[in-house]
Every structure is written in structure tokens, then in C-alpha cells.
């Protein structure tokens, strides 16, 4: 049996206001709204409340509507955290020459990470690639365990890329957009992030020895998290402004 308390207006139920910035939903009310805790039993036939047992508040219609909202909220609130916490990657692509797709990039999604099919670069080797990756859009690319050591990746767009365990030693990311990239356990020793956007990117257990952060563009909260990485050199910490 599920219970929910919903503030109800004096003359009816207001329409829910959905927002991506708030959990589930919120009810919009007018200044004349009268808040009365309403206990809804979605599995039984009774509708209990603290006061005003007659009229509209005791109708089956209100009960059904409230239960519907409760069910929708339960599904939406439970689904998203589970998806984020237990990310499942698709099977490794069997497409011939799949690694060469990086030289074309994601041609439809750009920074928002939308694609017609996954850009699967996992286990690919781009060591010392100096021309074919520069300025490409690799948004939402799957890069885990790939090798980019010594590559020129200036001006690349890697929004929402998954690069866990990948190797980027000595990679030049100057003027690149690395927005919301997962660099967990990646090797970024000597990587150059000059004038690079790092908003929302995560570096859990990443190796950042001798990485260059000159004029890096990063949010305050993201900076605080990045500064907890103990492998960043003193010079790198000074460039970032770590305290």
C-alpha cells in the first residue's frame, strides 16, 4: 500500500508542474490554496484525511488522480538513479574498420551526444595520430581501454564521452570541449588542457602527472573535485588555483 501527502486547493486539484531541476513533480498553487494533508491508500477503498471528510476531497476521482501521480513519480524517481549508477555498455561493435569512424566522428549529434549508432572506439589504438582526430566531434563516443598516446586532439568535441581506463598520455587537448566526459581511471599523464572546457567531466582515480591546465575552463564545483586528485603536480595545481 502506498501513501502520499498532497496539498489540495480549496476548490479542486491544481495541475502538476514538471521540472528537470526538481525531484519528480511539484504542485502549483494559488494564494487561496488551502493545504490539507491527504493520505491516499492506492490498494484499498478508503480515503482518509485529517479534516473535511465530505464533498470533492472524498471522491474516487481525486483518489484515482492522486494514485496516478504517485505511481508516475515512483517509476520516474526510481528509474533514473538506477540507470546512472549502473551504466551498461553495449557489446563491442563488430563493424569492420570501426576504429576508423573516429576520423569521421559523430556527424549528427555534435555536443549533445545524440547519434544514429554508437561511436565505438573501445580498444582502438590511435597512438601518435597527428592529423585525423584534430577538430573531430567524438560526442558520446565509447573510448574505454583505447590508446590515444601522443595524439593531436586539439579542438576535438568529446561531450558525454565514456573514456574510463583509456590512455591519453601526452595528448594535446588544447581548445577542446571535454564536457561531461568520464575519465575514470584514465591515464592522462602529460596531457595538455590549454583553454580546454572541462565542465562536468570526472577524473576518479585518473593519472594526471605533469598535465597542463593553462587557462582551463571549469566550474567551481568541478574544480573542487578535480583538485582532490593527488597525482596533479604542484604546477598543475597552481594553474588550476587549487587550495
TrEMBL record:
Top-rank lineage group of the source organism: Eukaryota
Q: Which UniProt keywords apply?
A: Repeat
UniProt xrefs under Gene3D superfamilies? E3 ubiquitin-protein ligase SopA (2.160.20.80)
The UniProt entry, under InterPro entries, shows: 5peptide_repeat
Protein's name in the database: Thylakoid lumenal 17.4 kDa protein, chloroplastic
Amino acid at each position: 500500500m502506498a501513501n502520499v501527502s498532497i496539498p489540495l486547493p480549496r476548490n479542486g486539484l491544481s495541475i502538476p508542474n514538471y521540472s528537470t531541476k526538481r525531484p519528480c513533480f511539484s504542485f502549483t498553487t494559488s494564494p487561496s490554496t488551502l493545504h490539507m494533508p491527504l493520505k491516499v491508500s492506492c490498494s484499498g477503498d478508503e480515503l482518509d484525511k485529517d479534516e473535511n471528510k465530505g464533498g470533492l476531497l472524498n471522491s474516487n476521482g481525486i483518489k484515482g488522480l492522486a494514485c496516478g501521480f504517485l505511481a508516475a513519480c515512483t517509476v520516474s524517481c526510481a528509474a533514473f538513479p538506477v540507470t546512472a549508477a549502473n551504466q551498461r555498455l553495449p557489446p563491442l561493435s563488430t563493424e569492420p574498420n570501426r576504429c576508423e569512424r573516429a576520423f569521421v566522428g559523430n556527424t549528427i549529434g555534435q555536443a549533445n551526444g545524440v547519434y544514429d549508432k554508437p561511436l565505438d572506439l573501445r580498444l582502438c589504438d590511435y597512438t601518435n595520430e597527428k592529423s585525423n582526430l584534430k577538430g573531430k566531434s567524438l560526442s558520446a563516443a565509447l573510448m574505454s581501454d583505447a590508446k590515444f598516446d601522443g595524439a593531436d586532439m586539439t579542438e576535438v568535441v568529446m561531450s558525454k564521452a565514456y573514456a574510463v581506463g583509456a590512455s591519453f598520455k601526452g595528448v594535446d587537448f588544447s581548445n577542446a570541449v571535454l564536457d561531461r566526459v568520464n575519465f575514470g581511471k584514465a591515464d592522462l599523464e602529460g596531457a595538455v588542457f590549454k583553454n580546454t572546457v572541462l565542465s562536468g567531466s570526472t577524473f576518479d582515480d585518473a593519472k594526471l602527472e605533469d598535465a597542463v591546465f593553462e587557462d582551463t575552463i571549469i566550474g567551481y564545483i568541478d574544480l573542487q573535485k578535480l583538485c582532490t586528485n593527488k597525482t596533479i603536480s604542484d604546477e598543475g595545481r597552481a594553474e588550476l588555483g587549487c587550495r
